[in-house]
Amino acid sequence: MLVIAAIVAAASGCGIVGGGSPTDGSLDGLSVSSPRIRDGAPLPADFSCAGKVGNPPLRWSGVLQKETKSIALVVDANNAQGAAEVHWLVYNIDPLTTELAQNSVPRGAVEGVTSSGKKGYSPPCRRDDIYRFSVYALDAKLDPKKATGLRETLELIAQHTISRGRLSASHIE
Questions:
Q1: Whole domain around residue 148: which residue ranges?
Q2: Count of the separate structural domains present in the chain
C-alpha cells in the first residue's frame, strides 16, 4: 500500500491524479459529460462496487484534431485525507473517438494497471470520496512497452497532455 501511495503522490504533482497546479488551467479545453452522471452530483451506485454494470458511459468534445494523436482516460478518487486511488486507466484511444459506452473499452485502446495492480475498471467503494473522470488529449500514442505500471503510464500521460477535461462525482449515492 505504501508503494501505491508513493506512485500516486508522484503523479499528483503532474496534475494527472489530484487537482493539478493552479497554473496549468490553460490545459482545460475538453468538455466531459455523461448521460448517467451530472458534474458534482453523486456517482450512481450502479457504477460502484455495489453495482453490476461496470464503467459509466462518457462523452467528450473539444479535442484539437490536428494536434491530438490519442486520448487517455483516468478515473481516480480523492478522499478527505488527500489519498488518491486510480480506479481505471485507458490510453491510446483513437483521437476521433468522442464517447465511451457503458461497460466497454474502445477498439484498439489499452487498459493500464490501476492502484489495485489489475487492469480494467475497478469500481469505487468508498462512499464519501470524490470520483473524477478525466479525459486527456495527447500529442502521441503511448508505447505500451514504456507504460509498464501505473506510475510510468501516468508520467507518460502527463508528458504528452495537450488538453484535458474532467467530470466529478461528489460521492457514491
A1: 2-169
A2: 1
Q: What is the pLDDT of residues 143-173, one digit of tens each?
A: 999 999 999 999 999 999 999 999 999 999 9
Residue 88's CATH number: 3.90.280.10
How far is the C-alpha of 162 from the C-alpha of 69, rounded, in Å? 10
For 106-140, letters b (16+ CB in 10 Å) and e give eeebbbbbbbeeeebbbbbebeebbbbbbbbbbee
pLDDT of residue 25: 57
